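User: I'm writing a tutorial on reading structure tokens. Could you give me a worked example: one chain, its sequence, then its tokens, then a sentence or two explaining what the tokens reveal?
Assistant: Sure. Here is the example chain.
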Amino acid sequence: MTDPTATRRTKPFRFGVVAPIRTDLPTWRDRVRRIADSGFSTLLMPDVPRMQPAPGPALAVAAALTDLRVGTWVNASPFRPPWQAAWEAHSLSVLTEGRFEMGIGTGRPGLEDELRDLGAAVLTPGERLARLRKTISTLRDLDGPDLHTPVAMAVRGPKAQAVAAELADTVTFALMPYESRAEVARLVDGFRPTREIELALHVSVIGDGVAPFMAPPDTDTAAMRAADSLAVLPNDPAAAAEEIQRRRAELGFSYFVFGADFAEALAPVVAELAGH
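And here are its predicted structure tokens:
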């Protein structure tokens, strides 16, 4: 069998930006246009009920403003029945003419409390994963033979990894903030799909800055750097570009996702590396 890491490392770089709506709409629209002009490939929306407009409508607006790809980063499967999540994803693929990517996972810390507050059922981990699988299979049925909505899965344990190896186009690992490079390397090495899958890295900290909705505001950035966390990049563009290339060469990560607050500072990195 071919070593899957050998194919992962050859994927070209691309870069996404998580751009929640935290300002008035004209300011957000201007930011979306600047992100597109900077060479980023994908504008992403977090799944945070009640804190901003729903991801689907927001992404439809972003797609109408620019030629960026758009996507969710990432939807929590317990929030929506599989048919609804799949229908929304398929509809966005159709309306954006194939520029939508569905990011999906089984949840995040504290999700149980969010579900209770919303009056939704609290599912077991197994039920969450089954719902995620059903969402993707329903999406594939809706897409049919002429459309393929890319799916990015956030995974951690072996069962989720197995589903991702079977169904996902892109995989991002649900990493703890203070996990070391060596710990992440062990996690990546244990993921051995039999087909080519893009590996994505969620980078929530640039220098001492923390991206909203990507990490808690009280994140200890010094402790993350001391742990050699891969959720951190230096704020110097040359150093960041060098580190990004190292992460692809050593671990296979080729898709990097940043917060919108850092898009301008990292534009030189994107200009240098995107597509290579």
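What the tokens reveal: The chain has one domain: 4-273. Residues 170 and 210 are 24 Å apart (CA to CA).
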